[in-house]
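pasting input
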Amino acid sequence: MSERRDAEYVEYVQSRLTWLRRVAFVLCQDWYSADDLVQVTVTRLFAHWPRARRMDNVDGYVRTILFRTFLSERRSAWGRRVVLAGSPPDTVAAGADRDAMLDVREALATVPPRQRATLVLRFYCDLDVEQAATALGCSAGTVKSQTAKGLAAMRRALEPSAGARREY
Amino acid sequence: MRTLLRNLADTEAPPARIDIDRAVIQGRRRRRLRMAGAGGSALAAGFAVYAVFALVIVPLPPNATVPGGVLPSSASSGAPTGSYVSPDPADSGLALSTPPNPFNPLVPYASFGWLPQGYTTAAAGQASTSPDSTALIAESGSRELWLHVMAAGACSSSDSGSTLTCTYDAGDGSGPMPLTDRAPDVNGRRAYWSDFCNIIWEYAPDAWASIHYGCQGPAPASVRPMMSRVAAGVTYADRTPLRFPFWVSGMPAGWRVSATHFTDSPGTPTAGSMSFGPAAYPSAVQLSVTSASGSPGCMFIRSISRYVTVDGAKAILQAPNPSYHEYLCVNNVNGFMTGISLQKKIPGTGAAVPGVSGLGGAISIFKKIHVLGSDPAGWTTDPLR
């Protein structure tokens, strides 16, 4: 019984790994941190797998773990981000505007973690206000205000570069 | 914004560093530690006599039946009877002071008092300590009662007071605990039933505890009187310091023990494992030294394990990403099985754990372990020197 449950867990995680890594990358802005975040998330998922596997929305549960882990690690002393010297550069997908993507990455990195998490939940994961509130463990009002603040922060960070591109 | 984020996520991803096998190993360990939902307890400063509190909690009908046995009929008369676990002699009979914050991981801070018939606390290596909590388990066959006593400040209620969140619970998806279903007060302090099959109560100002029964959803009505009585019997005080069958030398300056697993034997709790590390990452090393007798032995995972020999002993080393993490398991040296998990980089940042570069890896740590034999009388309360 236990072996079958463990096998279910492995199968589930392997099937969701790409999705989890991409969400984590959008949150963390680098693949190394993203993979660390996903590692902690899937470890915590295993600890709760007997209960999680019975849920209607396992993906939603895992997403909640991932976002709350992201926020709790940012609150702790060792949540401060350190960029490794010599880490391999991320490669922008072919056809994308590389400069624009770098601008977006830099802009997102300036947004405080909770606002960033709210933006990712609302606009990348496509959750509505109530769903985002559940994932973050806060009220709908907080989600709305964090969304507004996050969008304003992104606009401020992107406006100078948008203006610079227009000069060309 | 949607388009921007989707294009951003389209960045070409390097090979994944996710180690699912390691998630299973560490998740299994966490599962033993964790209970669903948060809880913390604190006894009021006015707490007087243990027996009196056992009287005031939840009048029990005569011959009430709970899993594991029948409550003594004298329970309804208030006389403290039944299966009392002897409090640790060092408790000084329940004289209470403000709970310490943080807890000392080398000294458990709580004990079960009353337990239903058939329950025992000596499940090997399943109790645990950390700066935030002491966790104990009582078992009767397949039934379990998990006690979690949290340090002051480890849990916080929402502004409206309708939910409770504990720091150790962050990120696990269980979320804030609703504080809406009132339970009978525990020793005069507010208590609640939660959806995670537990009762949670505030044992001192801003300090909470809980009992978890091991079911899904809210605790059934049939077991609630028993859970309330177990909660009322909990004692809160520093117990006898844990005794370890080993000590470790040569660790970097400033490294401290951050958590332990121990066997909750009456009078002499003995620890088989501990986590330690620097302040930046307090669980950089997780070390266990347990009796090899009856153990299934070290696990060989085909994709990531290899056999090594350490000081003449057969061992298994798992290091799929050696610059990041190593796990060494030595099957039997002098009757003990040793497991060492060494995290070299801090998750989430990728920064090296301070002091780890000079350690030389899990094998080097193994060579710095001094095993003290099988007689607990010769064990130590100072495992990290």
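fyi Chain B has a mean pLDDT of 76.
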